């Protein structure tokens, strides 16, 4: 067994080699703070392994601004596709050139009685004065237990495993969930000519373009992306919100599930169960579609007010009117009789921070923090949705969050050891 004297020590260990971990490394390098990035797989692997072939950004390229690495391509108002995103991220990695160990699983991070942390990994033991958890919040794919009872002949995938329509067996496809991934995958299959059944959830939607500009541009001018979680009407509850569905595909457009229905896509309410050979759905499709449209029109109305208040010249306002309504909701569906040969579960991921052995989590297992700073002194979180602002889990806000944490880390690093322990 290793003795404390033989265990290598570092001022800072960063767990996670995605865009958050590399951003943290860039900010620490700027301040001359020695550190190490530990990555379970390979750096930035999520963008290569969890995205389908036709994936593209849903926010315009100009919002991509990692530390010292803004988007500088020819289409600031375009939407990078999967290969372009990976090329941009690879360039960021080369620019940062982080002190990185790939293929290293962190088994446990434990606070030490005398201050700092013990970090146990698949590649040995370390101690560190401070630890940044930059592994994101999307760890365990969510698939309901009822999936175990579905007919064995139906291929089941989680959204992270979907690549393209041609990789699925012939036949109809059921997509479960209408958040960003579900809506875009349903569209991808629909455009490929597949028969698509979509179980709709409570996800909101927004316009792609409104009154002559991308809605993101308007919201940026209105200060939405600078709003801290503490100023949001929902406060920390906003972290539980489902993202609005929209797409950047083919230059960007709305995703209108009602229009898909007119074109043959079959829509259902929230999937509840499978028994006696029948998929069962909650009778809430009409309400879900109406609520998504209400939010769509509400965002546009806020833009209208912004335009009016500032006297901005813009095309006239408009209100979305439904192009389709369900005549009656289908409560049951026999997947075999409907010819469904594939199911894609698009109901998200759950966090898994069990390896962080510190009293900083709420009853659901989510970290409790203030702008990424946990109550356990020297422990930080980065890259989580609404860590500080809407952009915290995206390319647009990580640089600001990483810079803030780097300042906190530098300030703590400059404290004498006895003061660090007392501050715990």
TrEMBL record:
Under Pfam families, the record lists: Pyr_redox_3
InterPro entries membership: Auxin_biosynth/cation_transpt (IPR050982), CHP04046_FMN-dependent (IPR024000), FAD/NAD-bd_sf (IPR036188)
Report if keyword Oxidoreductase is assigned.
yes
Top-rank taxon: Bacteria
Stored Gene3D superfamilies: FAD/NAD(P)-binding domain
GO molecular function of the protein, one example? Answer: monooxygenase activity
- Keywords assigned: Oxidoreductase
Q: Does the keyword Oxidoreductase apply?
A: yes
| Protein name per UniProt | Flavoprotein involved in K+ transport
List the source organism.
Methyloversatilis universalis (strain ATCC BAA-1314 / DSM 25237 / JCM 13912 / CCUG 52030 / FAM5)
Supply the source organism's classification. Bacteria, Pseudomonadati, Pseudomonadota, Betaproteobacteria, Nitrosomonadales
